[in-house]
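Let us practice reading a record.
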Amino acid sequence: MKRTVMALLVTLMVPASLWAISAEDIIKKLEKNTVTKTARIDGVMIINDRFGIKRSTFISYARGADTMLIEFTSVEEEGMKILRTRDEIYLFYPDAEELIRMQGAALKESVMGSDMSYEDMTGGRTLLQSYKVKLEGTEEIDGAPCYKVSMEAKKKGVPYYKQIMWIDKELFIYRKIHKFSRSGKLLKEIICDDVRQVSGKNIAFHMVLKDTMKRNSSTEFVINDIQINIPLKASIFSLEELTW
C-alpha cells in the first residue's frame, strides 16, 4: 500500500515540475530574446543544391519584429534589395530599375533559388497572435536541453498551419523548427547553432534551412557581424530609399 501511494505521489510530482512554465511564457521569453529595437547584420547566404554551391553576401537592417531591409552586396546580385514592412514585401532590381510588390502566389517563390520563400519573410504578428501553443515536453538538441512547443494556426492566412519549435531552456533561442502543412506534411526544417551573446541577446550565428520539397538542397545563413540597438534612419525602410 505504501509503495502504491509513493508511486502515485511521484507520478503527480513529475508533471508539476514539467509544466512549471507555460508554453505561452516560453514563447514570450523567446520573442523577448530574439526581437530587437534595431539591428544591422553583415552575413552570407550559402545555397547548396544540385547545381553546386552559391555564396551571396548581404547587409540587413531590422527595426522591431516586422520591418527589415536586405541589400545584397555580392557581385552577381549587387544592389538587389528586399524590403519587408508590416504588411508588404517589395523587391528592387537595380539593373532593370524595377520595383516589384510580392503578393499572392508570388510569395511562395524561392528567394534567389534558396530554400527560403518570400512567404517565410512575412511578419507583422507575434507568434501568440497567430498560433495556439502547447508545451509537449522537453528534448535535447545537440546536447542542449530544450522545450518542445507545438503551434497550430488560429486562422487562415498563416504561412504554415502547424509548427514545432525546440527552444533552448536556458538561452530561449530556437535550436530547431519543423514547419508543416495542414495535412501534416513536413515542409521546412530549420536548425540553429553557434549561439553567441551580443548586447544581452542570444544570437545564432549559423542557421541551416531545408525545404523538404527540394531534393539534395539546403541553405545556410552565416552572420559575420551583428550590431544591436543602434541608431537607424527611418528612411532606410522607405520605398523611396529602396530604389536608390
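A brief commentary: The two ends are 79 Å apart (CA to CA).
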